[in-house]
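Long-time lurker, first post. I've been practising inverse folding by hand and with some scripts of my own, and I keep getting stuck on stretches where the structure tokens seem ambiguous. Below is the full token string for one chain I'm working on. Before anyone asks, I'm not after the true native sequence, just a reasonable design that respects the backbone. If someone could post their per-position residues I'd love to compare against what I wrote down in my notebook.
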């Protein structure tokens, strides 16, 4: 339920306090991100030592491409979540935004840790989206279908829909981010929900694509869990958006 009188909420337009508040929150999120990355790196390394035949993807692998691109994708989600928290006093939206920022920071930390464990550079080795143009496990580029055990067959999308160096699915444009930055109250809530629904849908598409292309267990488990979480959040955000229409 939305809080009464949200249209009358006094959300200040003074740039200084907003930047300071947003900066403090962003620093906290980044600190949490780094902590999680270090913990995950140690934990995964220990698990790797106990694995008889660990898989180590190369720098041009689909796993490395996914890890790099999805970190960027998640970073924008964190940015939008922190922006809306400064632009509305609605507790439902603020709570969801904080949870998203924390979750996606943790997941970005996990992907950062993978690249460190694999001894691969964090910087892209090739244009964004290149990994999504590569053949699927079955060599097909047709429709992707999830199996009962969370596996994948086929491809997320036909290869022609993605080009190396193209924009990742669901990313907000600079103009859309500027509009969110300028919005306040219910207007900011509606815009955030609209942008984040599209952002999550793009994230699911990318997770779907890696499932169709990777056999690395930890990557597949991560992608499957991410798809389930983000679809649940999409359902919730669509209901919240309908309440504000």
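-- Answer (accepted) --
I ran through it position by position. Result:
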């Amino acid at each position: 339920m939305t809080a009464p009188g949200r249209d009358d909420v006094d959300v200040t337009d003074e740039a200084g306090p907003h930047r300071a508040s947003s900066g403090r929150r962003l620093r906290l999120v980044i600190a949490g991100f780094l902590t999680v990355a270090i913990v995950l790196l140690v934990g995964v390394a220990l698990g790797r030592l106990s694995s008889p035949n660990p898989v180590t993807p190369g720098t041009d692998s689909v796993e490395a491409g996914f890890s790099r691109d999805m970190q960027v994708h998640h970073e924008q989600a964190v940015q939008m979540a922190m922006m809306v928290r400064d632009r509305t006093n609605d507790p439902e939206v603020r709570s969801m935004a904080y949870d998203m920022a924390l979750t996606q920071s943790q997941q970005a930390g996990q992907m950062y840790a993978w690249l460190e464990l694999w001894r691969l550079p964090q910087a892209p080795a090739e244009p964004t989206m290149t990994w999504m143009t590569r053949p699927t496990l079955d060599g097909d580029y047709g429709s992707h279908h999830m199996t009962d055990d969370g596996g994948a067959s086929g491809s997320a999308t036909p290869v022609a829909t993605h080009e190396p160096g193209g924009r990742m699915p669901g990313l907000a444009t600079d103009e859309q981010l500027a509009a969110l930055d300028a919005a306040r109250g219910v207007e900011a809530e509606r815009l955030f929900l609209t942008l984040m629904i599209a952002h999550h849908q793009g994230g699911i598409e990318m997770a779907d694509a890696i499932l169709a292309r990777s056999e690395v267990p930890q990557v597949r488990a991560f992608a499957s869990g991410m798809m389930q979480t983000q679809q649940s959040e999409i359902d919730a955000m669509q209901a919240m958006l309908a309440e504000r229409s």
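A couple of notes from the structure itself: Residues 1-22, 42-52, 142-160 have pLDDT under 50 and may be disordered. The helical segments are 15-50, 62-85, 91-117, 174-182, 185-211, 217-243. Happy to go over any region you disagree with.
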